[in-house]
Design goal:
two-stranded antiparallel sheet, 178 residues
């Protein structure tokens, strides 16, 4: 097992503890979402998709959702992020921010729709405004910090052998390998 993947797992456990520990009174930041997107940006497609699915299962466990519900939405988003970085874009904070924003919008809509709106729950708009939106907005706001953490781990512990088609030098620039 490569050491950077051990660090990814330890960071995932820390974010899981933040989500399930109830450190905030009404809502918990979904930091696992930016983690899944950031790791998928620095790993190959299959590894990114599997890590995204595992992160989705961790979100379901922390939030008490139907097991696998978040994994269904997070895995394709992580795969798309990995494919976009591999084939079209460079791994940077701006690309990570918009990918996390799109992922959070998809996941927030699906959570609200499948948990509340489809069943006609009364006062579901209050749940949306007081719990769902702050959780996902906090994930978007804190996502640059998560990206920088994962980028540091990836560069420090082997970005050249991480399966990226683009190598990252010490200045943070990407160069095509020769």
């Amino acid at each position: 097992m490569k050491i950077r993947r051990l660090f990814y797992f330890l960071i995932l456990l820390f974010f899981f503890m933040l989500m399930s520990g109830g450190f905030f009174p009404r809502w918990q930041p979904f930091l696992i979402i930016p983690l899944a997107i950031a790791v998928s940006m620095f790993e190959r497609e299959v590894a990114g998709a599997l890590f995204g699915a595992f992160c989705g299962l961790m979100i379901d466990t922390a939030c008490g959702n139907l097991f696998g519900m978040s994994a269904i939405w997070l895995m394709p988003c992580a795969l798309a992020a990995s494919l976009l970085i591999t084939n079209l874009m460079r791994p940077n904070v701006i690309n990570h921010l918009w990918m996390v924003t799109v992922t959070c919008i998809i996941m927030a809509f699906m959570e609200y729709f499948f948990k509340f709106a489809i069943w006609g729950e009364p006062n579901s708009d209050i749940v949306l405004i007081m719990y769902i939106v702050p959780s996902y907005v906090s994930a978007i706001v804190l996502s640059p910090l998560v990206y920088l953490l994962i980028r540091t781990v990836s560069v420090k512990f082997g970005a050249k052998d991480s399966g990226l088609y683009l190598e990252i030098d010490n200045n943070g620039d990407t160069n095509e390998p020769s």
